[in-house]
Amino acid sequence: MTIRGASLTGASATLNGEAVHVTKSTSTNTTLSVTIPLNATTGYVIVSNTNGSSPSPSQLTVLAPKIKSFTASAKVGGTININGSYLAGVTQVSFNGVSTSPLSATNGAVKVVVPAGATTGLLTVFAPSGQAVSTIVFTVKP
To answer: Class of the 66-141 domain?
Structure first.
């Protein structure tokens, strides 16, 4: 995320009291490049420098992933697609408690292989901005 303002050289930033990583190589006196922390929640960004601190004029809205649909069933080792929104940051998918890393994740879809040990149950996707749990059951085929 890029914060624009003045006197930003050497500035730091927080979101809800949590430090955000400042990318020094791309920050300037009028821009501050920051990475939102894992599990961040909606809140005000506060930028601080030697002159003091200043909150953002409005809250930064952190968008958690949402599951809209998915391949309803597959065998262990089969590949499924999970469709939704804000999925680009998904790092793990849980099949009724058995987790695996996705093959790919875009804003609208996650592709994942059903892991060994998966059982019929709910799917959960995990991203830095939060998690989403399916409202319908995924079935592991024999």
So the answer is: mainly beta
Does the CA dihedral 17-43-90-119 come out positive or negative? positive
Residue 12: partners with Cβ closer than 8 Å, 6 or more residues away: 19, 22, 47, 48, 49
Kindly list the domain boundaries of the chain, sorted by start residue.
2-55, 66-141
The predicted pLDDT at position 1 comes to 86
| Greatest Cα-to-Cα distance within the chain, rounded to the nearest angstrom | 65
pTM beyond 0.85: no
Q: Give the DSSP letter of residue 25.
A: G
**What pLDDT, on the 0 to 100 scale, is given for residue 63?**
87
SS3 assignment, position 46: strand
Say whether pLDDT at 46 is over 70.
Answer: yes
